[in-house]
Specification:
Blueprint (H helix, E strand, L loop, with lengths): L1 H15 L2 H27 L5 E7 L14 E5 L5 H6 L8 E5 L3 H4 L3 E3 L6 H27 L4 H7 L8 E4 L5 E4 L1 H35 L2 H5 L5 H37 L2 H18 L11 H10 L3 H29 L3 H20 L1 H6 L4 H8 L4 H8 L6 H29 L9 H9 L3
Parallel strand pairs: 1-2, 1-3
Antiparallel strand pairs: 3-4, 5-6
Length: about 450
């Protein structure tokens, strides 16, 4: 036990004292924030490619109706044959050719021809233009045939956008505001964070074992330390490094929330809202209604209405359990192979369930009560990511307890199996290891 503590302490201090650990711990939150900001910026400013679309309008109803939109221009061509236009499109300056048939009113379809794969944004833009024109034209004909004065204006006034406010009822019957968007973001973010940490720190254990085995220093270490103590010290020490990093980020997050709440008090928010409204009224009276609510305070309230203690508990549990499960398996892989190249063949089968769980995050977050979400959160190899993605939505207690129980049982079994592979594999050199060989190692008696 004393040897395990010494190894644990060495693994922990060796990593925590590194400048890279301190720098990354402080910079990662800003890097993630910057990454999301960059994605938003690029998505807004990405499509700046100038395109000219040739339009052959056989119906002659849309002539001159297509104006420029962004960097896309439309050029109507009527004095040429469609077949000739289509044939010479590749050698022309046109990006694509839009063909509008005579019977578009009955078929509700048109053709967009190009020699390249067209971006979805462009096709949606053209579909939107055609649909809007036909809808307006049909409505205009209905108004003319009806003979009712101001009917078009009355129809326009019937367009309504409903804002849906969601409420959540507690067991005591109290209602609190909830937000599907906030729950979705929290679900996806928590699942991704768990995946990131489990994969990163599990791989760290594997590389550490491989380095010590390759340098033969492991032969000196196990002369005075049991392989199981060495494995336990490495795994627990690295886990504490991860928890230290997470704890720092949680503290920074709490401090940020407190500062934001202090800055955006109700009085401050009201003053800011009034100032914004006054400014907007001076610039454009139609925009004055947009500042009725303080979005920052509303988001803060919705985040506070989540079951934060349960989310924090689940995060710590699934981080530790998921980490112990995968770090044990990856540590065994590091002990079983001699080189980085050999490890790649065995890492994929071990980490495939973890990779699958991150691929399932979106369907889980969209339907947290569906069969995919349920089974992914119950199966131990995917539950560290999948269950944490469901927790923000609120789940039955028995599902959470069953998931935890199965994960603990599987983790204990994985640690036991990995310890046997670790014990045999540390002193194995120059032998290609396969699944059959690993099964033979598991059958060895102590």
């Amino acid at each position: 036990m004393n040897n395990t503590i010494l190894i644990l302490k060495n693994e922990y201090l060796k990593r925590v004292k590194k400048k890279s650990f301190i720098i990354l711990t402080l910079l990662v939150p800003f890097l993630f924030a910057g990454m999301f900001a960059l994605i938003v910026f690029l998505s807004v400013n990405d499509d700046k490619k100038e395109r000219t679309i040739a339009v052959f309008d056989e119906s002659t109803m849309f002539l001159g109706e297509f104006g420029e939109e962004g960097y896309t221009k439309y050029n109507f061509i009527q004095n040429e044959e469609y077949a000739e236009l289509k044939k010479g499109l590749k050698n022309s300056d046109y990006y694509a050719l839009l063909y509008i048939p005579k019977n578009i009113y009955t078929t509700n379809s048109a053709q967009l021809v190009s020699d390249k794969q067209l971006p979805i944004e462009l096709t949606e833009q053209i579909e939107r233009k055609l649909s809007r024109f036909i809808e307006n034209d049909k409505r205009k004909k209905v108004v003319e045939e009806s003979g009712i004065p101001d009917l078009e204006k009355q129809l326009a006034n019937t367009k309504t956008r409903i804002s849906l406010n969601t409420l959540k009822i507690s067991e005591t019957g109290e209602t609190t505001k909830s937000s599907s968007t906030i729950a979705f973001i929290a679900s996806y973010a928590m699942g991704f964070i768990i995946y990131f940490f489990v994969f990163m720190y599990g791989a760290m254990v594997m590389r550490s074992v491989m380095e010590e085995k390759k340098s033969r220093i492991i032969e000196v270490i196990i002369s005075s330390v049991k392989p199981s103590e060495l494995m336990a010290g490495k795994i627990i020490g690295t886990a504490l490094v991860g928890l230290t990093q997470v704890a720092i980020w949680i503290v920074l997050g709490i401090v940020t929330l407190v500062v934001v709440q202090g800055v955006f008090t109700p009085e401050t928010a009201q003053q800011m809202g009034q100032s914004i409204m006054e400014t907007q009224q001076q610039m454009n009276p139609a925009m004055a209604q947009a500042a009725d609510q303080n979005k920052v305070m509303e988001v803060m309230e919705l985040i506070g209405n989540l079951n934060l203690p349960l989310i924090l508990f689940a995060f710590v549990f699934y981080f530790l359990a998921g980490y112990l499960l995968y770090s044990s398996l990856l540590g065994a892989v590091g002990a079983a192979v001699d080189s980085e190249e050999d490890s790649q063949q065995m890492v994929l089968p071990v980490t495939f369930p973890l990779i699958l769980s991150i691929m399932l995050l979106f369907p889980i977050a969209r339907n947290p009560e569906g069969p995919v979400a349920f089974w992914a959160s119950i199966i131990p190899f995917t539950s560290p990511v999948a269950m944490l993605a469901r927790v923000p939505y609120g789940i039955p207690t028995w599902e959470l307890l069953l998931s935890m129980f199965l994960l603990i049982i599987t983790t204990v079994g994985a640690i036991f199996a990995a310890a046997k592979i670790y014990r045999v594999g540390l002193l194995m050199y120059g032998k290609k290891v396969n699944i059959k060989e690993l099964i033979k190692w598991l059958r060895y008696k102590n």
